[in-house]
């Protein structure tokens, strides 16, 4: 076996271990509740050491909200990758439509048991609020860089607050409908109407802002 093949196998093994830990954690969280489940419980179910769990997931919340990094980066990454002639709001509108059509879990499609588990945990509710704030901050940083705003310019932060507020409200509505047991197709159809209305308002306010040259 070559060195490259050995490295590839080790990387694959790490991915499999990480996924196994995540899967067992999710099952236990849903069965027993997030706050009642310990790292020791998860390690035992996954048949690994507690240190192995914390090496892959430094915080217990990371085990439940394992899309956190993608969630925080999502809005900023979409704006940074927009095409010439496209505004920040235009790029985000299209990205939201696509995520809704594909039932993207980062958007909030998680299934009823998981959504109920998250809502029942004050720890996870607080962590979600923190992730929304971090996502808005990341967006503000990108908007400032893209528009060449001065350090004290509040416009990027104000724009990010408006955009982030829309995404937060749509996420919460999607989660509410999920907890109520609505099927994903019905949720997508209902949220689609709200999405178009919300982005129409954003476009009126920010449609000419941060248009890529």
From TrEMBL:
<keyword id="KW-0238">DNA-binding</keyword>
<feature type="DNA-binding region" description="H-T-H motif">
    <location>
        <begin position="38"/>
        <end position="57"/>
    </location>
</feature>
<dbReference type="InterPro" id="IPR001647">
    <property type="entry name" value="HTH_TetR"/>
</dbReference>
<dbReference type="InterPro" id="IPR009057">
    <property type="entry name" value="Homeodomain-like_sf"/>
</dbReference>
<dbReference type="Pfam" id="PF17754">
    <property type="entry name" value="TetR_C_14"/>
</dbReference>
<keyword id="KW-0804">Transcription</keyword>
<feature type="domain" description="HTH tetR-type">
    <location>
        <begin position="15"/>
        <end position="75"/>
    </location>
</feature>
<dbReference type="InterPro" id="IPR050109">
    <property type="entry name" value="HTH-type_TetR-like_transc_reg"/>
</dbReference>
<dbReference type="InterPro" id="IPR041347">
    <property type="entry name" value="MftR_C"/>
</dbReference>
<dbReference type="GO" id="GO:0000976">
    <property type="term" value="F:transcription cis-regulatory region binding"/>
</dbReference>
<dbReference type="GO" id="GO:0003700">
    <property type="term" value="F:DNA-binding transcription factor activity"/>
</dbReference>
<dbReference type="Pfam" id="PF00440">
    <property type="entry name" value="TetR_N"/>
</dbReference>
<protein>
    <submittedName>
        <fullName>TetR/AcrR family transcriptional regulator</fullName>
    </submittedName>
</protein>
<keyword id="KW-0805">Transcription regulation</keyword>
